[in-house]
């Protein structure tokens, strides 16, 4: 489901929120840790200082060494404590301190002072209780952060739902426009006045402008074809009156037929673009239908039809439109490809393959475009045959795909 897709926008925002929370928690945690550590060291110094002062007083008041006094020569004092004593002496102080950490559980605050006989009086304060308290605070902070994340992340994902829903609606509308539904609009901006609303309005304006432009182009194409049709009929009639043995007359009739076919294709495309065509569906045996169409074409021995033995698949389709598609595909293969042209019928699929240079890359990427064949090696033409075939496939609710065979040649497949 898209809802739980890891790359969905809601989870990206939730992850960003979680990362921000973790960053803030880390900064706060470090600040709290430093503050608590400083406080712990201050407490340790105060305890060690109090103990050292009491012990120093006891040493001075008694003539003999007290049993609990830790008096050492300088060379037996830990090096960090000696360095701090020297530093304090340079600054006019008497007492040195050292916080000893022997993980996991040995924490001592050392306090030292040099007494009259040159020895160093040392007092050590056990800091394990304070350290455990600090560790518990750190664990509590980490637990609180995890608990907050468990609440914040789902809430962040839910908070983005309106944004995701609006973006999804915009994406579906854009895909509908790309698929040919020029009436599709995002619409209804609601009370929100943000960048998504601005983008939605821009997409709707673009769709409306595109629709107007395409409608103008369709109207122009249809008008031109209709205006040409009447004088062309007169030209066809006149050409038919010319003598059959005249080479110029034969050439003229051939060009008139080509022009007439071009006009008829333009009229058919204008009807397909207008969306007024409707399929007259009927259950027909696809293999027999295609075989009969090719037979009536009289395309020659270079065009063959293959239907698996025993395949009597019947499809619900419009036979006239299927015939139109097959005729155009075969004509395109013969005109722009090379024989042999192999037509195969398998189930509800019709495949037409030639052995020419194949379809150009532009056609494979963008589909058939009127008045564009895409590559000079596929010969001259108007690019209307495949455009009509694709439009008729759309009326049937079928799919017409184009590809190139690995060993060469163009392959067009009609999926009914």
TrEMBL record:
Residues 54-67 have a biased composition (Basic and acidic residues). It holds the Pfam family HisKA. InterPro entries: HAMP_dom, HATPase_C_sf, HATPase_dom, His_kinase_dom, HisK_dim/P_dom, HisK_dim/P_sf, TCS_sensor_his_kinase. PROSITE patterns: HAMP, HIS_KIN. It is found in: Cell membrane. It catalyses: ATP + protein L-histidine = ADP + protein N-phospho-L-histidine. Its EC number is 2.7.13.3. It comes from the Bacteria. This is histidine kinase.
